[in-house]
## 1
Amino acid sequence: MARDREGPESCDGSAGGGRLLFSGRTTVDALYWLDEMPQEDAKVFARAFRVAPGGPACNAAIAHALLGGKSTLMSTVGAGLWADLVRAELNRSAIQLVDLAPSGYETPLTTVLVNASTATRTIVNPPVGQAVPAMVTAWDSGWGDAPAIALTDGFYLKETLPLLRRLREGGTVLCLDGGSWKPGTHDLASLLTLAICSERFKVPGEAADPEATLAWFAAQGVPHAAITRGARPILGLDHGRKFEIAIEPVKAVDTLGAGDVLHGAFCFYFGESDDFEESLRRAAQVATQSCEGLGTVHWAGEGDAGPADH
C-alpha cells in the first residue's frame, strides 16, 4: 500500500496545489513494547523500542501522505534535540511544514508504554509548555492553493481558529479529530463539516455517551459526525441518518495512533469520493491494519510488524 517516495516538493514553504491541511500537535514518541506494565520502583527491559514522530495531526498527515496524498502540516516543531527527526520524516514523506513554533520552542518527547499482552498503551507527556504559538489569521498564498479539506485535532485552536473560519468561508471542508474536548471546541463546532471523535470525547455539561455527543454535533449544524469506540462498531450520523461500521477482529499488537491513522486515511478517501460513510469504512480498515504491528506506519510497508514472541 506504500506509495512511491519522491523528494519533498514544498517543505520549505513553497507549495504545489492539491494539499490537504492537518493542523495541531506534533511530538516525538519513544515507544517501549513490554511484556507487562512494570511495577513501581522496578527495572524492566523492553521487547522492542522505536522512536518516531507522533502527535494526532502529524500522524494523520503522515498517513494521508502514505496513501498518496499531499499533506501540509501546521504545527509547532521548532528546534531542540528531536526537531531534526521530525523534519527529516516530513521531508521523506513530502509533507509541507508550516511551523508555528515561537522562538525557543522544542519538540516535546513523549514516552509510550505498550502492554504486549493487551495491546493497550500508556502515554506520559512532558509538562505543558508555556510558549505561545504564532497566530494565523489567513491562508498565505506562499503555501499554495487553499486546501479543499482541513483537519484540526483541537490543539492550538486559539491561534488557528481565525484561519479555519476564513478557510470555511472560502469553501474548505473542516474536519475535527476529537480525541478529547479542548478549549475552543465550542467556537469551532458551528464551522465544522465533519467531526470524528473518540468515545472519550465529552461535551461539557452533556452526558458521557456517544449518542449524546452525536446529537450535540447535529444541534450545532454539523452534517457528518462519528464516534470511534476501539474494537466496537463506529457510530455515525450522516445528515440525520444513523449507521454503524463494524471493526474487523484482528490480533492487535499496538493501538497507538490508530485513531490518527483513521483520520488521515479518512481525509484521503473523502477527498476522492465525498462519501462520508464509505470513506469512514475504508479508513477504519486502514486503522485496524495499523494495530497489527508496532508503530503507526508499518501498515504501509514502512517498518516491521513488531517484535516476535519470546
## 2
Amino acid sequence: MPDTKTKITDDKVTKSEEQWRRELTPMQYAVLREKATERPFSGEYEHDERAGTYVCAGCGNVLFESDAKFDSGCGWPSFTQPAVESHVDEERDTSHGMIRTEVLCSKCSGHLGHVFPDGPGPTGLRYCINSAALKLEPK
C-alpha cells in the first residue's frame, strides 16, 4: 500500500497522487496536478468581488489578495501581484505552441495559471489564475 501521509519538508508539501485525488475535486486535481485549464468564464471566482485572501486549494498557501484582483476580461480571475512574492514560483511553459510563464504554488507545486506582461499598474502584470486552484477566505 502506498504511503498516503502528507510530508512537509523545507515548507514544501508532498502528497501521493492517491492522496491528492482523494482531497481535491476532479477539476482541482486536473488544474493543480495535471496543469489543466478551466473553461474561460466558468470559474467560481471570475466575477467574485468579495474582499479577502485567495489561498491555494491544494495546500492553503496564501497566494493573492482581493485588493490586487481586477477584471481583465480574459475569462479567469486576474491579479496584478501575489500577496507574497515567495509564495509563487514561475517557470517557462512552451506547451500548446506558445511561450508563456507558468505560475505555481511554491508550497505544493500546484499549477495555478500563467502570468502575462499586459496588466495594469503598478506592476504591469496579469496573473491569470484558475478559480479551481484557489479558495477565497473572505475578510
## 3
Amino acid sequence: MASSRGPKPAQITLSDAERDQLQSWSRRRTTAAGLAMRSRIVLAAAEGKWNSAIARELKLSRPTVTTWRSRFAEHRLEGLSDEPRPGRPRTVTDADVEKLIVTTLETKPTNATHWSTRSMAEHLGLSQTTVSRTWRAFGLKPHLQDRFKLSTDPFFVDKLHDVVGLYLNPPEAAVVLCVDEKTQVQALDRTQPVFPMLPGTPERASHDYVRHGTSSLFAALDFASGQVIGSLHARHRAEDFLKFLRTIDEQVPDHLDVHLVLDNVSTHKTPAVKRWLNRRPRFHLHFTPTSSSWLNLVERWFAELTTKKLQRSSHRSVRALNADIRDWITTWNQSPRPYVWVKTAEQILESLGDYCQRIIDSRH
C-alpha cells in the first residue's frame, strides 16, 4: 500500500481529449522517449497513484515524477514539452520533426531499401544537417539492420532453466564444459602479399583469396577456469564427435563428473554416442534450446578465435591452419579468461517477453 507521508501530490483529472492524447503519446513508437514517459506519469497520476508508487512502477526517481506531475497540473499538455532554452530561435518546427520521424519509421524511398540523410532531406525539403541531428537525437539509424531469431523449441523454458541453473549454481565435484564444433574453417591465402601497417596507413590485403581446404574444430570450454580442450578433424561426423568425447574423458580427472552443455544436432545423439555415454555415467548432457547458440559460452570463445586469429590470417594449407589454431589454443590456456554468466533464467525470459511485445507493437 502506498505511503501517505509527505505533501499530498497534485490531483490530476483528465478530460477525454487529454486522455486520448496522452495515451497516443505513450504508445506511438514515433513519440520521443521522454514525452512518452511523461505521458505515462500523468496517466498513472490520473489513476490516483502516489508519486512513490509511480516511481517504482516506471523505474524513475521520485523527483522526476513530482516534477512532471506538477508541470502537467499547472500547464496541462503544454507542460510536458521541454522548456525553451536560450539561443537562436528554432528554424525547424515540432511539426517538421514529427513528420521527419514518422516518415523515417513508417515509409521507405521508392528507389532504395532505407532512407539516407541526403534522400530524406530532398524528400522533405530540409537540410542534411537537420536530418542527421534529428536521427541522432532519436537514436535512428536507417542504414543499420540487426538480425535475430527467436527459438521455437517447445521445451525452451525447461532447457533455459537447466543450462542457466548449471552456470549460476555449478554442481560440486564436477566440471562444466561448454561444447560445440566450428565447422568448415577455411584455409585461405590472399592472392597478393599483405602490406604491413605504416604511420597513417592501415595494413592492406587483397580482397580476393585462394581456398586450400577446410578443417573442423571441436572445442570444450571449462566454465569455471576458461581452459579449452580442442581437437581438429578433417570432417564433422558423429565418429569425430565420439573421438572428441574420448579426448575429454582422458583429460578430465576420473573423480569428477562431466556436465556438457551442447546443442541438439544429430551428431550428438547417434546410437554409437548414446552407447558410449551409457557406459560412462559420469557424463551428463544439457541441451540448449533450438536456435539458442547464445546460451553456449563456447560460442563466445569461437568469436574471439575468429576476430583475433582467423579473420586476418593467411594459410597455404590445412596443416598450417591447424597448427595456427593449436598454437592459439595453447596461448589461450596459458592465461585463460572464464566468461561470467550473470543473468537468471527469469531475467532472460522477461527480456525476451519485452522484445516480443516490441515486435507486436511495431506492427500496429
## 4
Amino acid sequence: MLTAVELVVFLDTTALNVALPQIGRDLGLGEAQLGWVTNAYILAFGGFMLVGGRAADLLGPRRVFMAGLTAFTIASAFAGVADSSEVLVAARVLQGVGAAVMVPAQLALLSVTFTEPAARRAAFGVWSAMGAAGAALGTAVAGPLTDGFGWPSIFFINLPVGVIALAFTPRLLPADPKRAAGASGRLDAPGAVTGTAALLVIGYAIVALADADTRSRAWLLLGVGVALLCAFIVIEARSAHPLMPLRLFRVRELSGAAIVNMLVGAAHVPVFALLAVYLQYVQHYSPTRSGLAVFPVAAVSITISRTLIPPALKRIGARNMLAAGLAAQALAMAWLARIPVDVAYVPDVLPAALLLGVGLPAAFVGVTEPAVNAVDAADTGIAAGIVNTAQRIGSGLGVTAILAIAFTASGGASSDDADSFADGVHVGFISTSALAVLGCLLTLFLLRTSRVEGQSSPEASSSTGDQATPTIAGQDAN
C-alpha cells in the first residue's frame, strides 16, 4: 500500500508535462502560467519536506501519513475539476504539501513495520522501485490518458489509490506510539517558518534562473534564500526542540546520503526531460509514443525490485548498491549521449532505458535505507525529510542547469536544425552522466560500508561497541 502511494506521488511529478499543451488550450493559459502548474507542485513538495519529516516524528508517522494522503487526494480532485489557472495552481500547491508530508512518513513507517532485516530490504527495494517507476510511468501513461480521456484524468487516477489507501491504513499499518500523541507542542515554529521559507525561495529562484526575463531577480531571490537558510541554521542551533537537529549531520550515513541524493536528483530528472524533448521535437514522436519509449524503465524497476535488489542488498550492502546504481545510470546517460539524429529505438534508446530501470531503484534504496536506519527511531521522519529534500533541490538545480547547458551547446538552435539541436542534447546527456559518476565516487568516499548478511544489526553494534565491522549506527548523533 505504501509503495502504491509512492508510485502515484512520483507519477504526478512527470505526468503533467505531457498534458500541459492540452491544459493550456482548454484553460487559455500562456507559457508562464503553464510553467507554474508544474512548478507549484515541485516547490511545495521540496519546501515542506522538512516540516513533514519532523511532524512524522512528533505526531506519529501513521497519523501524518494519513493527513498527507488526505490532502493529496482532495487536491487531486480539485485539480481534475479546475476551470482556471488559479484553482489548478492552488490544487497543485496542496498536492505538493500532501506529498511532502507523506514521503518522510512512508519511510518512517517502513522502518517500524519491517524490523526483520530481509523483510526490510525487500520493503525498501519495492519502495525505491515505485519511486523510479512512478517517474517513468508518469510520462508513459499520461499520453494515452490525455488523448483518450482528457487532461483531468491524470489527476483523477490518484483518487481510487488515495481512497483505498486511507481505508486500509488503520488496519494494515502499526499504530503510532502513545508518546507521539501529545508531542505537537514541541514543533519548532520559528525553524519551520524560516526553513520552509528558505527552501521555497531558493526553489523559486532556481526555477526563475531558467528564464532570461527573470534571471536578474532570481539571483537576488537566491541571495535572500541563502540568508534565510543561514538564519534557519542559527535558530536550529539554539532551539531546545529543533525542527532539524543539527546533531544528525554528524551521522555520516545521513550527511553523506544527503549530498549524494542531491546528485541523484540532478542526474536522473533531466534525462527524462531531454529525452522527451528530443523524441517529440526532433523525431516527431507523439506524446503517447514518447511516453511509451521510457516505459521499460518502469517495467524493469518493478521487476528487479522484487527479484534482484533484496538479495543484492543483503550480499553487497547499501553503499555498494548505491554506487552500482549510479554507475548503471552513468552508463545509460553516456549511451544516450551518442543518440543519432535519426533514431532507431531498439539500438539507440532501449539499452539506456533498461540500464536506467536497473540503476534508479538501486540508487534510491541504496541512498535511503542507510540514512533512515542510521538514526534513532525518534528521528527517522526528519532523516527521511532531509535526504528527500536534498533530492528535490538537486532535481531543480539539475533540470535548470542541464537544460541551459544543452541550449548553449546547441547554439540556441531550434528543433528545425536537427544536427545542432542534437549536439546540445548530447552535451546535456554527457553532463548528467558526469553527475552520476561524481555521485558514485562520493558514495565510495563518504559512506562507510553497510552491513551485509551475517553481521550484527546496527542496534546491536551500538550497544556492544563492536569496532571490527564498519558501522551505520545512529549513536554517532548523540
